[in-house]
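dumping this here before i forget
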Amino acid sequence: MHQIAIIDYGMGNLESVKNALHFLNYKPIVTSDKDAIASANAYILPGVGAFAMAMRNLKERGLIDVLGENVMTRKKPFLGICLGMQLIAESSSEMGLHPGLGWIKATVVQIEGGPDLKVPHVGWNDVRISKDGVLFKRLSPAPHFYFDHYYQFMCDASQIAATCDYGVPIIAAVEHDNICATQFHPEKSQTTGLRLLRNFLNFAESVRC
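structure:
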């Protein structure tokens, strides 16, 4: 069984993700130790909070280079969750313009909302699967997931794995090579979320790095 590292950079639902993986009979490590990260086989980057603070925390803990080496160069499987998805973009306009990890050609912008659409986008939504890839194998055509976010991910259509409807389409998940990410919280999405996490773990086990 491969070692899964949940990245601790001071932000995110670390225990919720850890507990979900325990339920799936995995024993992940929750760590900010660079050596432990380098030796892991796959990564989960959760996140809740502000983009700029998250990038600052990653930099101050010396995690940007070790994650980049292992995800982008060594091609180890990666799953970003919520803010962890947004951080892989090139930039975010949240409270100014801030550079991201730049692993995917994408930007992060505020959800527009509308008269009947509150921001943040909080609650359960069906998602529409647009890519037959890693995350949504053996899930229903319109699986239900829990969202909680002010900002949305914008990228090329070729990288979009799923969208949801919030007045306009919002990118709900992306997949690109070894990189997967979800705007929703699979760890808070009950059985469907566990099935998605299982799909990612199966993918991680299939990759030899």
